[in-house]
Amino acid sequence: HHEQNGDDGFPGIRARDINMKENLMLSALPTDIFCSVPGRLSLLSSTSKYKVTVAEVQRRLSPPECLNASLLGGVLRRAKSKDGGKVLRDKLERIGMQLPSGRRKAANVTLLTSLVEGEAIHLARDFGYVCETEFPARQVAEYLSNRSQDLSEQYRRKDLLLATKMVTKELMDLLNQDRSPLCNTKPAIILDQNIQRHLTHFSLITHGFGSPAIVAALTAIQNYLNESLKCIEKNIPSGGLGLQHMDTKPLQLDSKLFLSS
Hints:
two-stranded antiparallel ribbon; 10 helices
């Protein structure tokens, strides 16, 4: 959709309502572009611009964040001026959104608050790429796996690694099914609403960064677990000990086990 650089800040919406008087309500769809915002994390000439939809603005005005005019203006990079808040409020009212004067924000402001969804998703994607390609999974696995040569300890460690792999995979699978609304999409929900609403809350606070970032970290952990299992396979003699030689007592995850490593 063609963007005009008009002063009104509604390029996508104005395109459809070009003949309407300034003081009339504009018909805005959730997928309409409210404005374009320059990225905060780009370097020099590679500055990205991110399209912010009407739906995204509505999400920033609603719980859990409930941004006020000042914070929303900062997020959308509106120039600061004496009546900047009033101008923004008027523009929002023209598309049917209320931004009461003197409103107090509901959530704590973090660095993520300053990001629009497009940039938060971009950050999560880049973090995922770095976790996948640069995390030293093999080196860490070799370092930690070779600290004990005791065979029964190696078998026990293998059980721990397999159990951890299963639990982290379970969490990754759940987070990959998160269907929180983002940018101009509102995907069909596939999880139980009782868990999806909590994931949606996390997404609204992190603007889409949260779940993908945790999946990225879990991917690095999975790679470490897989490399650790390879190390242990090398350490255990082939056709090694039969079950009768193994320590078969029930596996108990003692907190001291994690603190001592």
